[in-house]
Design brief:
Length: about 150
């Protein structure tokens, strides 16, 4: 196995890199929990609007049911080396009632508009309260780049 030298980034560099990834990536892991059934995790498409992540799922999915009962969620970009974890509360909105600008942006990014589906869909909007970002052990210290909804650095 080849090892890579990791030069630790400053908090400002981690914030910049995190925002770049949130703006450009397609998939995010969404973790919810049910009081009786425990944790549930799925990958979903997402849109970053500069303040929050928007995901959409079937209104009868376990993710939707869990988020409606327990809105605290965790999100993770799919990279085990360049880790980005977000934590916040999901605000849930039926697809036909979601803000037009958010739904239009989501449809524009993915070429799919849940508002046009026969089956009901639910948007989840998560404005993170905490964001952690790190690359390997050298960056574990200082991995928090957002605390209480405020970016650090």
């Amino acid at each position: 196995m080849q090892t890579m030298e990791i030069i630790p980034r400053t908090t400002a560099e981690r914030r910049r890199d995190t925002l770049r990834r949130l703006s450009s990536e397609r998939d995010i892991w969404v973790s919810t929990a049910h009081p009786d059934h425990g944790p549930h995790q799925v990958p979903l498409w997402f849109l970053w609007d500069g303040q929050a992540a928007w995901m959409c799922t079937s209104a009868d999915s376990a993710t939707a049911r869990n988020a409606l009962k327990e809105p605290r969620v965790r999100l993770a970009l799919p990279d085990a080396f360049d880790v980005v974890l977000l934590q916040g509360e999901a605000k849930c909105c039926p697809a036909r009632e979601v803000a037009k600008d958010a739904a239009d942006a989501f449809a524009g990014k993915f070429g799919w508009d849940p508002r046009r589906e026969k089956a009901p869909f639910l948007y989840l909007r998560v404005a993170p309260r905490t964001v952690r970002a790190w690359r390997g052990v050298p960056e574990l210290r200082g991995r928090v780049v957002m605390r209480a909804g405020t970016w650090l650095g």
